[in-house]
Amino acid sequence: MLAMDQMIDLNADLGEGFGRWQLTDDEALLASVSSANIACGFHAGDPATMRRVCALAAERGVRIGAQVSYRDLAGFGRRSMDVPAAELAAEVAYQIGALEIFARAAGSAVAYVKPHGALYNRTVRDEEQAAAVVEGVRLAGSGVGAGSAPGSGSKGPLPVLGLPGSRLLAAAAEAGLPTVEEAFADRAYRPDGTLVPRSEAGAVVTDPEQVIKRSVRLARDGEVVATDGRALTMRARSLCVHGDTPDAARLARRVREELTSAGVRIRAFA
Question: What is the pTM of this model?
């Protein structure tokens, strides 16, 4: 068991709307999380939504992260696509840059990058796609980042948030980017430490009590139970609670409360 003063970041996907349609309860989620993965317009989100959520996050002291995706509004970014590496790198940089405009307008800055959906899963094993995402982060990172907002200190490379053991984090480390290992409170894990695809039954943990128990075990003990019943070591600096699950805001609040009660402090990694 880890020390009782263990700290962890709590993140959620926000800004996942488009026009009049809104999927996530952004205001309520921002009361619980320390980092906000904000959709950048490719799988969800639009300029007005991005501006609004950045302003809310900055007002509450929540770190702003760019959640980059394949260009797939119709499929919510959950369809894998064969995008040429140079094109993908440019699209990743484009999304980060777009969010940075609104983050700066709110007096903040993009503090990290996290791929969404199919891009996240693809970069677990696909070296070319992982390298393209990293190149996009590097391309955008010369002008953005947690240190580029007024009064926030010196500039630095943007951290990349991803699955432990993924090609994405390996490529980011090789490129000199900070890496942050992430765990999921509400997703099922295979014995090899990868996520169960959403196309398979049981991929998402829907029982709130189970999500809470898993959250505490991940944060305090560094473990998660895989689908075959074995305990996997999962040392993560950030814990994700999906914003599009039913009653997500209430669940995020309960997760935060239980983590605090278990002696785990919630603190942004960026």
Answer: 0.92
